[in-house]
Amino acid sequence: MTIKDVFLPLVGQPRGPALAAIEKCVAVAADLGARITALALEEDVFVRPKVVLPDDSDAAEAKGLLEASDMQHLLNAFAHATSRVNIRAQSRSAKVPADQVASVLAEHARFSDLTLVPVKLHDSRTEHIIETFLFESGRPLLLCPEQHVDELRPEFESVMIAWDHSARAARAVGDALPLLQAAASVRVVTVADDKSDAIVQSGTALIDHLREHGVYASFETAKGNGSSIGKVLGSWANSHAIDAIVMGAYHHSRLNEIVWGGVTKTVIGEPPCWVMISY
Predict the structure, then answer these.
(1) Most CB contacts within 10 A, which of 12, 98, 159, 260?
(2) Domain of 232?
(3) pLDDT higher than threshold 50 for residue 42
(4) Residues 195 and 143 in one domain
């Protein structure tokens, strides 16, 4: 698979980190040589008619303009970012009911090779949108952590594969092949306190498979030492200057992940760097 068509959802408030994340996402799309399509959505909230006093009319009108301007600010940031790089770009906007925002975005994501998602730190709305993408779009996601946006590079020189031997991790590796082939360093990492023969055989088999695609990777294990796997992966990525993590989503029961937390929930809530995730 080649990545030629990427999708960027634009929702929320046009804060500084969010605008910087848009610019970084556009830079990644340009580095991939892909077309980027942005969709800005505004919540169509029903407001019960009420009597407005003459003195309040100006304030009500100003409030409406402010709400509408959030979407326009995001679109303006996208237009500015795309004008600075050599990239084919297009944008659209729409107003939809609040409870349909995530599903509408996921539907549009089906017609792209990759969705770039700016991620706010431990934000329930963002997490809901990401989960909807995972289960309804059928496409991989590339998470852009807004809290680290200043340190992020658009070129993925060093990539880490979070390998847990699962079918979803294998799917993620397949989806990420264009990124892996372009990387200077690819490291396959399995979190395990004991380096069993089965773990070594699985990691070796993946390295052998990647070699057939021109990707020369190394394999190693990282000890959990009682920490959650998601936190171990984040710490390992930070200590080894990893640009992007490739991982599969929800290896365990989705209900268990949502109720008790898990690797996917940890990484979605606080991505340590770029994270390409597939389901």
Answers:
(1) 159
(2) 158-278
(3) yes
(4) no
- Provide mean pLDDT across the span 82-95: 96
pLDDT (tens digit per residue) in 216-261: 999 999 998 878 888 999 999 999 999 999 999 875 545 444 433 4
The number of distinct structural domains making up the chain is: 2
Considering only CA atoms, give the Rg of the chain.
Answer: 20
How many CB atoms are closer than 10 A to CB 43? 15
68-92 burial, b at 16+ Cβ within 10 Å, e below that, comes to eebbebbbebbeebbeeeebebebe
Structure tokens at 238: 């930070």
Q: How far is CA 108 from CA 4, 7, 72, in A?
A: 15, 8, 19
Measured torsion, CA atoms of residues 76, 79, 81, 85, in degrees rounded to the nearest 10 = -170
Location of structure tokens 């046009």: 14
* Helix intervals (H) in the chain: 16-32, 54-83, 101-109, 124-136, 167-175, 177-182, 197-211, 229-239, 254-260, 263-269
CA–CA gap between residue 96 and residue 114 (Å, rounded) = 23
Q: Residue 224: its pLDDT value, please?
A: 84
SS3 for 240-257 is CCCCEEEEECCCCCHHHH
- Token pair of 89, please? 């770009």
Displacement of CA 257 from its chain's centroid (Å): 18
pLDDT in tens, 166-223: 899 999 999 999 999 999 999 999 998 888 899 999 999 999 999 999 999 999 999 9
One-letter identity of residue 248: G
Where does a domain end: 148, 179, 213? 148
* 35 three-class SS: strand
CA distance 173 to 170: 5
CATH of the domain at 123: 3.40.50.620
